[in-house]
Design a protein that fits this description.
alpha/beta; 2-enoyl-CoA Hydratase, Chain A, domain 1; 2 domains; 3-stranded mixed sheet; 11 strands; globular; disordered N terminus; Enoyl-CoA_hydra/iso
Length: 284
């Protein structure tokens, strides 16, 4: 696994603590099991660069081994989420790459989405202001999305002469908002307002801007305090069952649930119920 400067501390048993991780291209902190990742170039509406793409990919891969992170909040600084790929740092250089170079880049950006979908922790995106291009994909690849009325989400790839099929958009977006609505956004590249995003199911809820981050962290904290092994299994099955028939899915869920029944958290929940107490989950 390749890291940019600031490698997380390696723990015995090939586990990883990310509490002391110093990110190079965004802000990252861990508190009470919740990691908050903040895209932090507010003067440019938090665009991505080649380096930030790579570091994000590697960090989400590392989360699979992080015992001290139970949920992740993804947000942006300065009243915007993310404006997509940086025009000067990415778009310009891409016009000068040969085909193998361009394919290496598009595969790398897709690997970021794969890493987000395969990391076991639920990811909660807190989306305010501009959420465009690759930024919209980061929100889409998250598990839960909270927005604001003033947010503007746009899959604007066709606006720059590219296909709407980018970083898995044609697979992910129809599953969230439906085929017809996804087709409209991906063909036109138009902005989707916060109210429309909530109505279409892209946002789970719309918050006041000043309350957005607290709401996302509160949601994440509730998950972090819950049965985190079971949450990881739920995320895994949500991912895997996209490509299964119903019979396959029922069998896969039977196996997944049997595994969860063998956890200590399941036994804790039973004994707490018998004692009329609230269970204290520990993720094992």
């Amino acid at each position: 696994m390749r890291y940019l400067p600031g490698e997380p501390q390696q723990l015995p048993g090939n586990r990883t603590s990310l509490a002391g991780y110093q990110a190079s291209h965004f802000l990252f902190e861990v508190s009470d099991g919740v990691a908050t990742l903040t895209l932090d170039r507010p003067e440019r509406k938090n665009p991505l660069t080649f380096e930030s793409y790579a570091e994000l990919r590697d960090l989400f891969r590392a989360l699979a081994y992080a015992d001290d992170v139970k949920a992740v909040v993804l947000t942006g600084a300065g009243e915007n989420f993310c404006s997509g790929g940086d025009v000067h740092d990415i778009i310009g250089p891409l016009t000068r790459l040969d085909m193998p170079g361009m394919l290496a880049f598009t595969r790398m950006t897709g690997d970021l989405v794969k890493a987000m979908r395969h990391c076991p922790q639920p990811i909660i995106a807190a989306v305010d202001g501009v959420c465009a291009g690759a930024g919209a994909i980061l929100a889409l690849a998250s598990d839960i999305r909270l927005g604001t009325a003033r947010s503007k989400t746009a899959f604007l790839f066709t606006r720059v002469g590219l296909a709407g099929a980018d970083m898995g958009a044609c697979a992910l977006l129809p599953r969230v908002i439906g085929q017809g609505r996804a087709a409209e956004l991906l063909y036109t590249g138009r902005s989707m307002s916060g109210a429309e995003a909530e109505r279409w199911g892209f946002f789970n809820s719309v918050q006041e801007p000043e309350a957005l981050l607290a709401a996302a962290r509160g949601f994440a904290q509730g998950l972090a305090d819950g049965p985190t092994f079971a949450h990881g299994m739920t995320k895994k099955m949500l991912q895997q069952e996209w490509n299964m028939g119903v019979d396959q899915a029922i069998e896969a869920e039977a196996q997944a649930q049997a595994i969860c029944m063998a956890t200590n958290d399941f036994h804790r929940a039973y004994h707490a119920f018998v004692a009329k107490q609230k269970p204290q989950f520990e993720g094992d």
